[in-house]
Specification:
Layout (H helix, E strand, L loop, with lengths): L5 H14 L26 E6 L9 E6 L4 E3 L2 H6 L7 E7 L2 E6 L4 E6 L5 E5 L5 E8 L2 E6 L4 E6 L4 E7 L12 E4 L2 E5 L6 E6 L4 E7 L4 E6 L5 E5 L14 E6 L4 E7 L7 E6 L2 E6 L1 E6 L24 E4 L6 E5 L6 E7 L5 E9 L1 E6 L2
Antiparallel strand pairs: 1-2, 1-27, 2-3, 4-5, 5-6, 6-7, 8-9, 9-10, 10-11, 12-13, 13-14, 14-15, 16-17, 17-18, 18-19, 20-21, 21-22, 23-24, 24-25, 25-26
Length: 365
């Protein structure tokens, strides 16, 4: 979440430094200390946390939260391989016993055993990899923040096999999230973009586009097959976009926008998730609404403990097995962050200290 929104990130950092001591008591909710002991995850229920680290510091890391024992194992890639993960880890995906770790500013993907984190190989020749979507056993797409293309890789041989050209149109066409539906992959041009792009996964070609709000930050499908897109609107001083953020619903059969919700101009909603016909997103606090609601919620479901001008929560995830809500707090973006687990009533269950800038969750299946 860093790169093209440094102005926002810097503002959050400055604000948070003033309040970090005031709210130091909040950190005491972390029940377990940081550890770097080698661990084997095959019998543990839990989730991985991708800790971005700081841009150009090379301090990104991977954590695993063991829900059975209520314990956070940190620096697990380093602990197993005696090597750092790299500069700005963005996301992970898991398939056939392997975990694929996108390391954004290092321009590579590390592949490791998803139970032991033992290094298997790396995929290079990438610019700024963000997210990975498996198309088949031997083909996957990787989005890129800066390139106007999607990388095609073979997840079995760890080779880049091609690219999908996204150039053309009125706006910059980077790619961010990747969602496969049938033979079509939907991707959002978040960084200085304003489009949802459609890729034919059989021919590896760009086959369509739809103009949406400024900077579509995240998206998800609901149970009816509708695509929901959360647009952050850019930020003040951005030479490309600064408009009201939007949440919109799209009919993927006709590619028509069916419904639009507008946020206040000065807000910056992020991290859209959908679970059991409920929309979740961050707008400093955590909000939820039904996919059938006719207006945005007026009250947070989970409130940040900080004042509004101090920033807010950093990442969001929903446990598919328990429907528990996972919320990441990056604190001041310099120290280790906190991941908190809430039940469906918004009651705090556990909190865990993880790495710097926890920004992405992935559950083991």
């Amino acid at each position: 979440m860093q790169n093209n929104i440094f102005s926002i990130g810097f503002t959050r950092l400055v604000n948070r430094v003033f309040f970090v001591f005031l709210f130091a008591g909040f950190l005491s909710c972390s029940k377990k200390p940081v550890d770097t002991v080698y661990f084997e995850f095959s019998k543990s229920q839990g989730f991985f946390v991708v800790n971005e680290g700081n841009f150009m510091y090379g301090n990104s890391s991977l954590s695993f939260v063991d829900l059975d024992n209520q314990f956070a194992h940190n620096q697990i890639f380093y602990a197993r391989n005696a090597a750092p993960l790299g500069d700005v880890a963005q996301s992970v995906n898991i398939r056939n016993g392997s975990i694929y770790i996108m390391v954004n500013n290092s321009g590579k993907i590390y592949v490791a055993d998803d139970n032991t984190l033992e290094f298997k190989g790396s995929i290079t020749g990438l610019n700024s990899p963000r997210y990975l979507e498996f198309i088949s056993e031997d083909k996957a797409y990787v989005s890129d923040l800066y390139s106007q293309s999607i990388h095609i890789i073979n997840p079995l041989t760890y080779e880049k096999t091609g690219e999908i050209n996204l150039e053309g149109g009125r706006y910059h066409r980077s790619s961010e999230r990747l969602l496969l539906k049938g033979d079509t992959v939907f991707t959002n041009s978040w960084s200085n973009g304003k489009e949802i792009l459609l890729i034919n996964s059989r021919t590896d070609e760009l086959v369509g586009s739809l103009e949406v709000g400024a900077q579509p930050q995240s998206m998800a499908f609901d149970s009816n097959g509708k695509l929901w897109v959360l647009c952050d609107g850019g930020y003040e001083g951005n030479p490309f976009f600064y408009e009201k953020p939007q949440l919109m619903r799209i009919d993927t059969r006709t590619m028509e926008i069916e419904k639009v919700f507008f946020f206040d101009l000065e807000t910056s909603p992020t991290e859209l998730a959908i679970h059991n016909d409920t929309l979740w997103f961050i707008n400093r606090h955590i909000y939820r609404q039904s996919i059938y609601d006719s207006q945005l919620p007026d009250k947070p479901f989970i409130s940040s403990p900080y004042p509004d001008d101090y920033g807010g929560f950093y990442a969001l995830g929903i446990d598919p097995a328990t429907s528990h809500i996972l919320v990441a707090d990056a604190i001041d973006h310099q120290q280790n962050g906190i991941v908190s687990e809430y039940n469906g009533n918004g009651e705090l269950l556990n909190s865990y200290q993880v790495g710097v800038n926890p920004g992405h969750f992935r559950f083991k299946k």
